[in-house]
Specification:
By secondary structure, the chain is α+β, with helices and mostly antiparallel strands. The protein folds into three domains: 192 residues, Up-down Bundle (Four Helix Bundle (Hemerythrin (Met), subunit A)), CATH 1.20.120; 86 residues, Helix Hairpins; 160 residues, 2-Layer Sandwich (Heat Shock Protein 90), CATH 3.30.565. The protein has eleven helices and seven strands. It has a five-stranded mixed beta sheet with strand order 2-4-5-7-6. Strands 1-3 form a two-stranded antiparallel ribbon. Strand 4 and strand 5 form a beta hairpin. It starts with 8 loop residues before the first helix and ends with a helix. The relative contact order is 0.06.
Amino acid sequence: MKMRRPRTLLGMVLMGLAFVTVPLLVAIGNAGIKLGQLATESEIVLADSATAALQNERLAKLVSSMERNALSYVTIKDLPDSATSSNNLLASYAADEKDFEESVSQMRVLPSDQPIRDQLTRLSTISKDVHRVLLTGSATERAIAERFGMLTDATRAVATGMRATTNARLETLQENTRSAQQQLLWLTAALVPGTLVLVGLFLLLVGRPLRQIDRAIRELGEGDFGHPITVSGPHDIETLGRQLEWLRHRLKESTDEKNKFLRHMSHELKTPLANIREGTELLLDGSVGQLDLQQQEVTSILRDNGVKLQRLIENLLTFSAWQTHTAALELAEFELKPMVFTVLSQHRLALSNKKIKLQLAISAITVHADEGKLKLVLENLLSNAIKFTASGGTINVSAGMQGSDLVMDVSDNGPGVHPEDSNRIFEAFYQGRRPQGGPVGGTGIGLSVVAECVQAHGGAVELVQNGEPGAHFRVRLPLRRAGDKRLRAVANA
């Protein structure tokens, strides 16, 4: 009959405990029985040994008393006026003989071999023969001495034989004890690997689904909803796996809906925003009439805030595209310095209003990359630096080659990044503990978009911890040549 595997984790745990503990309980029970038998046998051996020693001592005393009474009787039985004394001696001999026979009977019930039993029979025969000779009146001192000599020898032979029997039984008991110890050792030696095998099998059956659940939870935590969750194992763990799969579907649907909402809203906002920016540009160009200084200042503010709003929308669109894996790089060769100055010109009003000084170190090099994405990276880093830099502060922007990599640095002398935020600042929608400057708060996706764009180019962005005040971001991009199709394929992946 095929044994069915437990359907629940609890059942599997109980089965594992049963497989481990039942052999152990059997071994303990067997050891208890063996020890009980050995204890009982040792008690019997000790009791028999004590009985044998006591009876041997009693036999020796009785033989001595019987010999003394018999010899005295033979000596005085023919003397005048000795009838009473002779009868008393016979009575004493008879009493000693009765006790002698009782001791011999007790010795017979003790474990012994055939020679000892023969000697016990001989003791009984000799004592009765002496009594018979005394009663017939034909006993002589010599005959009595000879018979008691044989009786003494037989008594010593019985004592020696009983001691030998006791020693043999003790040796047998010791041998049984050693045998029981060896059996327990062998059983323990057999249980240890068997238990280890059972534990390993149990860990395999339970550990595998637990690892599957751990991997599934880790993927969900990292936002990877593309891999179906399948957990095989006990029924309750499989149920948990199905619940995680249901959660994955819900999270995926929620993420898709969020990205869809971001795309739709961003696109809906771009059209009126484009009209607003076009209108402000027409006003600044004087196409609809000349503006006075105050009107130009207000229009410039409208234009700059329109640019900020456009950048926020572009961040949302870029973030949504990366989340849905629909974004692709449009690689082309362009001059780095003009691109950097274009980005700086879009922030000239904000820089002027806060009287921020710019320190530039831009190399004149040609870059093969996605110009729009690289411009978005620099815009976000520069906007972030302007936001957190106090009036009269300084922002450093540098770009150049280090080995085979393009390195861009943007740093400021503002409050910097809180130490507890350094590991999370590139997460989407995460805003640090530092208070944000400016009248409009950020969305928390600027730096995440920077990270996405840089990683799409095969590069990396990091927060440089150099002990100086302010925040220092460094972008490192590998060089790409126009004819390098392999690198182009990597960038488009």
